[in-house]
Amino acid sequence: MEPFVRITATACPLGLANVDTDQLIPARFMSRPRSAGYGSFLLHDLRFAPDGTPVPGFVLDDPRWSGARILVARRNFGTGSSREAAVYALADYGIRAVVAPSFGDIFASNAVKNGLLPAVVTEAEAEALIAALEADPDGDVTVDLEALTIARGPLRLGFAIDPARRLQLLNGWDDIDLTLRHAPEIADFARRRRNAEPWVDPRH
Amino acid sequence: MTGPRTLFDKLWDAHVVLTREDGESLLWVDRHFVHEGSHHAFRKVDERGARLAEPGLTFGVADHYVPTRGRPVIANREIAGMVERLSANAARHGFRLFGLDDPAQGIVHVVGPEQGLTLPGLVIVCGDSHTSTHGAFGAYAFGIGASEVAHVLMTQTLWQKKPKRMRITVEGALPPHVSAKDLALHVIAAIGADGARGHAVEYQGEAIRALSMEGRLTLCNMSIEAGARTALVAPDETTFAWIRGRPFAPEGDAFDRAVAHWRSLASDPGAVFDTEIAIRAADVAPTVTWGTSPEQALPVTAAVPAPSGLDEARAAALAADLDYMGLTPGMALADIRVDRVFIGSCTNGRLEDLRAAAAVLKGRKSAVPGLVAPGSSVVKRAAEAEGLDRIFVDAGLTWADSGCSMCVGMNGDLVPSGERCASTTNRNFRGRQGLGARTHLMSPAMVAAAAVTGRITDVRRLGPAGTGD
Lengths: 204, 469
What we know:
The complex is a heterodimer of chains A (204) and B (469).
Chain A: E1 6-9, E2 11-13, H1 21-24, H2 44-47, E3 70-72, H3 85-93, E4 97-100, H4 105-113, E5 117-120, H5 123-135, E6 141-144, E7 149-152, E8 155-158, H6 163-171, H7 175-180, H8 183-196
Chain B: H1 7-13, E1 16-19, E2 24-28, E3 31-34, H2 39-47, E4 58-61, H3 77-93, E5 96-98, H4 108-114, E6 123-126, E7 140-143, H5 146-155, E8 157-161, E9 164-171, H6 180-191, E10 199-204, H7 206-209, H8 213-222, E11 230-232, H9 237-243, H10 253-263, E12 275-280, E13 287-289, E14 297-299, H11 312-325, E15 340-343, H12 345-348, H13 351-361, E16 370-372, H14 377-385, H15 388-395, E17 398-399, E18 420-423, E19 438-441, H16 444-453
Parallel strand pairs in B: 3-4, 3-6, 4-5, 6-7, 9-10, 9-12, 10-11, 15-16, 15-18, 16-17, 18-19
Antiparallel strand pairs in B: 1-2, 2-8, 13-14
Helix pairs in contact in B: 2-5, 6-8, 13-15, 13-16
């Protein structure tokens, strides 16, 4: 996994609440292998009309924020289906950080495992950042995971992330390798569990 | 552990292999369900040349992509490929598969309980957000992403941070014609689509104890739509009676010993929850959604909300939702015409759900086309044995095979763009049932009522079956 320490990039004021994972990638694209690249499916049905033409004025394709690597959204980003493909779509598009007042639990977990930072700010801070980006699209945003800060011009915000997730992102840790170091404890636990509640093993 | 513990605390404590300094715990997983969408995770396993840690605790179910008509031939090559890939992974890694040709095939969250694979006291995970369903049995069940699926396949464990505990107490009895689905939508509307985020929810109270297992499954299923990753009901006599005799459940002495243990799981008196929510069952009416989030739900007697009084951003968001849904502020929900109906899904595809819908449809005609997809092949046979299929077919609806079907539309069962569907599913997100589809969530009885009249209808006002409308 690619570590995340800090980035300085264009930030796109997505400005939507309850962006569910069905929006981030519609179900009909999910049977494709990851190697096909999921970036073109990101927010597909908001970006494109049914005939495939771009929806005029949709912020993600607005040239003022082209090349954005940071998204700023309203509350409950990534709610809904557990589909990790939602994170693949963001990552393959080039997004490295999403800033929002809250995230769907499964989405946040999926994000970190793919090197995507879910940065939690207050609703007021998200509004301030969205307003600043809309008022003046020029000017990069810096998201610093070591310092837990977001900076844009004179605007300075702190953000929150679970400490374990922060460490995983900073170090680019693969948690399967971490877990396999505990193989003896896991085997011991499995033995004790089967003794205590033998019905854990299905009858057939 | 000292002091009174909640049901969730007991489940958590029984599964912690170890806890790191940063507070993350490694949890043992008792059941891992996989489906066609797990192909990303199996690819990760293959990339490492790894094997499954516990194939005996892994169960595969073909549900997301399977066709509901014309089986067993699958004409669409992409869909056929998804179903075949799951079969190939099951064969290669040696886990039990409920495939397309299995008489117990169905939606994973219907099959698990039905087969006695879902038991109290277990940790159950699946790469599907509605895994919270299984918490109805007093199991710690939650949805995970593809990376976590791969982690469980290779280690039978998961790193988790202990969530907070929320208790939702539902006092009193639900009124007549008000179901678990209405209660679920009522709760989500009350606390918001992220109201239970970061929490394990336990439902308590008279109305919960009175629910059937099917009702509890529906309620726990929908809890993810309130942001909870897991939801629980303490196991009781209703639970034990449901499990007894199921194919994979313990039997004889083992069953009795299991029940004795399961009785001890209920939250201790005096156990403290981080968050408390109280709901009066008498306040719950037949409830329907009008927007594009499950939190946008109201009693069927209400009207589409107006943006007055909202700040600029929220007013714009509401206007966009109403535009997508093709609705105008102030119109009565009961004046909304529907183009089709869908009955099924992991939320409301169980036998009790089909009975509730059939009770309304019996002797009546549906004014619109619709699809009924039972939650499992077992449910399908049981429904046919009691003649429910005839009621649906006589009403003019299509009686299909089991699968996720028109809930997520991956198998090609879709609502055409711009059409409006009364649906027993769990999500009314934009495009969820198809590009441009407009979904109104409601209970099976309410969907049946909408079918009869061709518009959203208060099932309490429809009158007894056979009287016409």
